[in-house]
Automatic annotation (TrEMBL):
InterPro entries: Gram_neg_porin_domain (IPR033900), Porin_dom_sf (IPR023614). One of its GO terms (molecular function) is porin activity. This is Porin domain-containing protein. Residues 1-20 form the signal peptide. SUPFAM superfamilies: Porins (SSF56935). GO terms for cellular component: membrane. Keywords: Signal. Residues 10-356 form the Porin domain. It comes from Pseudoalteromonas piratica.
Length: 359
């Protein structure tokens, strides 16, 4: 989809005001950065220092200053046709994909009652706390959600889900039960960084659930998902113990605490898939008027016999809310990649700056 379609879709939605109540919102991030130093991964043919800032969309920085890897523009259109029925579409153009606009979300919603909503279509896979607003940089304190923790190769799905919203005393309570599948015929992360060959990644028989509760200072989110994985590299099926598919189970827990100026963000995740793959993130931040300095640490650990994939990132940054709808950010990241045969991008030190805006 080219960029003309991005504008055309928005104009089409606004052309029928008599049939529905249409709301259009948007978000953008204009980011720039460079690698200060790094090792690369010579055994993978990556000789220059490289910082892999975002795993799913493969946002890569090198020693040259660039705006392309993480800059993006998005539009979300919601059409409410009444009696509880609505349609939502989200279109995003990313610099990492040469600003070719793609549908990230396209689904229908039906409000059964004040507590339950049924949805069907294409949505973001709700594995993590920030999954639903992963592309909206204004929604979080960092330049990007910590990459070691937000690293999966599949991040959308096609299917159905049921949302619940309610409360128990002083606690709000929400839930999400979902099922579906995703077939990524040319998975960018696996194709470009792991196998150097066209890789088709399939997650089928997805079944998962999320439950989240919060009061005025504490928020807890727990999630679990099961799925079956198939993979084709240059058209040939991958085999695991003589089978062309394998089952995975994902578990996640996020706990956030906000004490006014000081806040703590944390996530722990485990994927049981031919052994355990563990990720974690911890962020400490402090609000000083419109400025929010923070420090963050994230880690990824997957054992594979005597080897495996193991990397961590330490980040320090500042967010400045200079406008009611915009924030300036600057962040320093130091990556330590302790893998060898499964190394991703090697050690690196990088700096990024940018502006996130919603409208």
């Amino acid at each position: 989809m080219n960029n003309k379609v991005l504008l055309g879709c928005a104009l089409c939605f606004t052309a029928f005001p008599s049939f529905s109540d249409v709301n259009i919102s948007g978000f953008t991030s204009i980011n720039a950065g460079k690698v200060l130093s790094g090792t690369g991964v010579p055994q993978f043919g990556i000789d220059e220092p490289t910082f892999l800032a975002d795993y799913p969309i493969v946002s890569v920085y090198n020693e040259d200053i660039t705006f392309k890897p993480e800059s993006l523009f998005g539009l979300q259109v919601t059409a409410d046709v009444g009696e509880g029925l609505s349609a939502t579409a989200q279109i995003v153009a990313r610099g990492a994909d040469d600003f070719n606009a793609e549908f990230e979300w396209a689904y229908l919603s039906y409000e059964v009652n004040e507590n339950w909503t049924i949805q069907a279509g294409k949505k973001r896979l709700p594995l993590f706390y920030y999954s639903d607003f992963y592309d909206v940089g204004y929604a979080y304190v960092w330049m990007r959600a910590p990459a070691d923790n937000y690293t999966w190769q599949i991040f959308n799905y096609n299917g159905v889900n049921a949302l619940y919203s309610g409360s128990i005393g002083d606690w709000s309570l929400s839930g999400n039960i979902y099922m579906g599948r995703e077939d990524d015929k040319e998975n960018k992360l696996l194709s470009d960084f792991f196998f150097n060959a066209q890789t088709r990644e399939i997650w089928k028989d997805i079944l998962g659930g999320v439950i989240q509760t919060s009061n005025d200072w504490l928020e807890i989110r727990a999630t679990a998902m099961t799925y079956t994985n198939q993979r084709y590299i240059d058209g040939e099926p991958s085999m695991w113990d003589g089978k062309d598919e394998r089952d995975g189970n994902f578990y996640g827990l996020a706990v956030n605490a906000d004490f006014g100026n000081f806040f703590i963000l944390s996530e722990l995740n485990r994927l049981d898939l031919d052994g355990n793959l563990d990720t974690a993130m911890l962020t400490l931040g402090y609000r000083i008027d419109s400025f929010t300095p923070f420090v963050s640490y994230s880690t990824f650990d997957q054992k594979d016999g005597d080897d495996g994939e193991n990397h961590n990132t330490t980040s320090v940054g500042v967010r400045w809310d200079f406008h009611s709808n915009a924030a300036f950010k600057i962040q320093y990241d130091e990556v330590e990649d302790n893998s060898f045969s499964l190394a991703v991008a090697g050690d690196s030190k990088a700096i990024t700056i940018g502006v996130d805006m919603v409208f």
